[in-house]
Amino acid sequence: MNNAPARVSRLRLLISGVCTLLMVAVAALGLPGTAQAATVITSNQTGTNGGYYYSFWTDSPGSVSMTLNNGGNYSTSWRNTGNFVAGKGWSNGARRTVNYSGSFNPSGNAYLALYGWTANPLVEYYIVDNWGSWRPTGQYKGTVTSDGGKYDIYMTTRYNAPSVEGNRTFNQYWSVRQTKRTGGTITTGNHFDAWARAGMPMGSFNYYMILATEGYQSSGNSNITVG
Fold this sequence. Notes:
Blueprint: H1 4-29, E1 39-41, E2 45-49, E3 52-58, E4 64-68, E5 73-78, E6 83-90, E7 97-118, E8 123-131, E9 139-146, E10 149-161, E11 168-177, E12 184-187, H2 188-197, E13 209-226
Parallel strand pairs: 8-11
Antiparallel strand pairs: 1-4, 2-3, 3-6, 4-5, 5-13, 6-13, 7-8, 7-12, 7-13, 9-10, 10-11
């Protein structure tokens, strides 16, 4: 008796079962391109989502939220908040080329910036592409031209202030674009080199780097995708 059709049928069932298991595994891992349910967060935390690191910090719980969407996308909404910083990026800073796009709609004081920290020395740094009612400033250190625009360089100092290492005194480094934009490329090494030439040394990249939305005593919303 010829049992070839039965063997073919069992083979088809086996292949179908394997394919189903693979699809379930891919969905569980949340690999790029896999749809995931949005996650809304309102409390201070860090983690990974959609293959990217995220950070959310606020001193005014209840007045701001961050929605984690697929891949490098996130959105924020805030109303009469104190201070918050939220964004997606990487668990460690580096010399990298960052591409991003989206929308940024502040009412009051807010920044859209590539943001991070270094250790030894402890430095909080901003590459600001857009802002609300107040353009960041400080001790003027020169300019740097990068990615189709010119940025003013500033340094400020915070004393006994919150940081990734607890309350500390530390310098803040700023590159602030002379004309606003929401989307494009940020070549971090160009800014790091310009800061070094201006006598602003950076430390080791022990801490995160994110494309951040920051608000202070303001309201607004943003929707940003990091690439």
